[in-house]
Amino acid sequence: MPHAPQHADVVTAELDSALRGGPFHVALRAAIAARGLPLQRVQHHLSRHGVKVGVTSLSYWQQGARRPQRPESLRAVRALEEILELPEESLIRLLADSADSLSGGQRSASRSYRSLVEASGVLDQLLAELGCPPDGGLHTLAHHERLRIGARRELAGRESHHIVRAHRDGVDRFVAVHHGDRGAVVERMAVHALENCRVGRVRRHGDTGVLAAELLFDTRLRAGDTFLFRYGVEDGTAGVSREYVRGFDSAGGQYALQVCFDAAALPVRCHRFAQASVAAPRSGCQELAMSGRHRSVHLVEPRVRAGFLGIGWDWE
Question: Positive or negative, the Cα torsion across 148, 152, 155, 158?
Answer without folding.
Answer: negative
